[in-house]
């Protein structure tokens, strides 16, 4: 019988996240050698990675960090189940991914996945960690914003889960009023889910499609011909109010738009990033 203790089993389970029987089997095969047992668990998990590749990883969390008040990083990391997504090991992995993004000051998801972690690519490291968790784990999205001031806001949609919504807002002034406004706008964006920062960011084909739908709807409603152009503009503007951050009525004071709130604070928005897990 291999020479190991109950404390070894407990330590190996905490280190790898593997089940009791898998840990015991690995220790037996490794003749009690702790590091060899870890390797055996990883190898076993990685063999199953190909089978997991086609499975959906729609659960997970978002993590964010602001550096020097002027640079924000936002990362979404996914798993298959909320059970894994709220585990300490998965949360720790997400934090490691975020710190890697900050340490390497990456600009894109591709750069992040290629970044070095203990002598290997981050993407390979994440795959190995997923193997010990027994689920498909991936880093699905990354954003970086910069400005005179940057605010990060994370929101939990359920008390027992990590943050599922994350927002970064960058503004072009660094005053206390600007920072406060940036935070208020980040909270607003988390709740109101804008898809774009400005009207200019909305693809032309999207706007054209909204105009087409508005015109067809107006004609189907037998609106007077002379009124149709005004109706189209009104409905397109309503689309912008739903989807463009700066056009949205501010959640705390709907009489003002988000743009007006920022202007009153002596600033304007430079960039926005918003992730909601799985969407």
From TrEMBL:
Keywords: Cytoplasm, Elongation factor, Protein biosynthesis. It is found in: Cytoplasm. Residues 81-84 are annotated as: Involved in Mg(2+) ion dislocation from EF-Tu. The keyword Amino-acid biosynthesis does not apply. It comes from the Bacteria. The keyword Glycosyltransferase does not apply. Its main location: cytoplasm. One of its GO terms (molecular function) is translation elongation factor activity. Residues 72-278 form the Translation elongation factor EFTs/EF1B dimerisation domain. Gene3D superfamilies: 1.10.286.20, DNA helicase RuvA subunit, C-terminal domain, Elongation factor Ts, dimerisation domain. Belongs to the EF-Ts family. Associates with the EF-Tu.GDP complex and induces the exchange of GDP to GTP. It remains bound to the aminoacyl-tRNA.EF-Tu.GTP complex up to the GTP hydrolysis stage on the ribosome. This is Elongation factor Ts.
